[in-house]
Amino acid sequence: MEDKLSLLGLIVHASVVVQLVMASLVLASIVSWMFIMQRASVTGRARRNLEQFEDKFWSGMDLTRLYQEVSEDGQGGGAENIFRAGFKEFSRLRQKGNMESDAVMEGVQRAMRVALAREEERLTEHLPLLATIGSTSPYIGLFGTVWGIMNSFRDLAHVQQATLAVVAPSISEALIATAMGLFAAIPAVIAYNRYSAKTELLMVRYETFADEFSSILHRNVHSQNVS
After folding, report:
1. d(Cα 104, Cα 220) in Å, to the nearest integer?
2. Domain-by-domain residue ranges, the chain?
3. Which helix or strand (DSSP H or E) is residue 32 part of?
4. Integer Cα distance of 148 and 94 in angstroms
5. How open is the CA angle 92-97-101, to the nearest 5 degrees?
6. Is 60 left (phi over 0), alpha (psi -120 to 50) or beta?
7. CA–CA distances in Å: residue 10 to residues 7, 129, 165
8. By C-alpha distance, which of 83, 110, 109, 102 is closest to 221?
9. Where is the MotA/TolQ/ExbB proton channel domain (predicted)?
10. CA–CA separation, 145 vs 156, rounded Å?
11. For 37-90, how does the pLDDT look when each residue is reduced to its tens digit (9 = 90+)?
C-alpha cells in the first residue's frame, strides 16, 4: 500500500484518463518553460541592443554614416530597424526632389510605423500561448480531480464498508492532477505578466525614439527647404 501511495505509484496506477491529464500538464509545463527562457533571451537582447544603439544615435554621429553602419551590420533589432526603415524612406523620397516636406515626413512616419508593428509582433510572439497555458492548466487539473473523485465514489459502491484505504488512491490521484495543473499554470501566468510588462516598456521606448527621430528628420527637411 505504501508503494502504491507513493508519488510514482499513484501516477503509474492512475486511471487512463487521469494519466492523460497528467501527461498533458507535463507537456504544457515543458512547453511553457521553453518559451519562458526564449522570451527572457529575446527581451534581454532587445533591451541591450536598444541601449547600445541609443548611445550611438545620441553620440552626434552623422546619420548617413550611422545608417551605413547599421545596414552593414544587419544583426541589430528594435530601434535599429526603426531607424533603418525611417532613414531609408527619408533618403528615397528626398532623392525624388519634387516632393513636399509634409509628404516626405508622412512616408517616413508610415515606414517607421510598419517597423514598430514588426517589432511588437516579434516581442509578443508566444506570449498568447503562455496566457493560454496559464489560464487553462488549472481547469485541466480540475478535470483530473473530478475524475479521481468519481472513481473514488465508484470504488465505494463496490465495498460493504467504506475505509480510507479504499478511497485514498483515487483521491490522491485527484490531488496530484490539481497540483500539476497549478505547477504548469503559475510559472506561465507570472512569465506572461512579466514579459508583457517588459514588452510594453520596450514599445514605449521604441515609440519615443521614433518620435524623436521623426522630429530630427522634420527639422532637417525643413531647414534644407529654407536654405
Report:
1. 11
2. 7-226
3. helix 16-57
4. 71
5. 80
6. left
7. 5, 30, 13
8. 102
9. 80-207
10. 17
11. 999 999 999 999 999 999 989 988 888 898 988 887 766 678 899 999 999 999
